[in-house]
Specification:
Strand 4 and strand 5 form a beta hairpin. Strands 2-3-1-4-5 form a 5-stranded mixed beta sheet. It contains 7 helices and 5 strands. It is elongated and about 50 Å long. By secondary structure, it is α+β, with helices and mostly antiparallel strands. The protein has 2 domains: 62 residues, Arc Repressor Mutant, subunit A (Orthogonal Bundle); 81 residues, Glutaredoxin (3-Layer(aba) Sandwich), CATH 3.40.30.10.
Length: 160
């Protein structure tokens, strides 16, 4: 599988940062970096990462099924994750989730027809003190109201 020179450099640095025989520890970051570039975790990507870290493809598949941030289907350009765990739930997280579904016309792990936005209900993003919270790709948004959510989604729709 061919990756960009930048991703190859990240992989090389990751693999060199672990002692011999411990490269499997690089598996999750490699999968995340590659997913960002490729768009999803494909069969070809699983095989490539398995080869590079010295494990069987089945072991990579096991990791993928465990971690919810690894996706086998392509995500939208802007992946919106809305927390509905207890702190967010008590401060309006469920209402935000329902509002986002209605506004976008999609549900859990679905993508808008234009491929711009995907939506996911998540258990916790570790922002309980600033609930309700959501994450767009790697950016956190705290104390989100339905009005703030509308503004954010409108901005995301306009981005190329």
């Amino acid at each position: 599988m061919t990756f960009s020179p930048e991703l190859e450099a990240k992989f090389d640095k990751l693999l060199k940062s672990y002692p011999p025989g411990r490269q499997r520890a690089a598996m999750v970051p490699m999968l995340l970096f590659a997913q960002d570039e490729v768009g999803s975790v494909t069969r070809e990507l699983v095989d490539e990462v398995a080869k590079r870290v010295g494990v069987q493809a089945l072991q990579v598949d096991e990791v993928i099924t465990y971690y919810s941030m690894l996706h086998r289907k392509p995500l939208g350009k802007h992946h919106v994750q809305i927390c509905t765990n207890i702190s967010c739930l008590l401060t309006g997280g469920e209402e935000l989730w329902k509002h986002a579904c209605a506004k976008l016309g999609i549900g859990h792990k679905e993508v808008t027809p234009d491929g711009r936005i995907s939506l996911e209900e998540v258990e916790c993003i570790g922002a309980c003190s600033w609930a309700p919270a959501l994450q767009v790709n790697y950016d956190f948004h705290h104390q989100v109201t339905p009005e703030k959510l509308d503004q954010l989604l409108d901005r995301l729709r306009k981005l190329t």
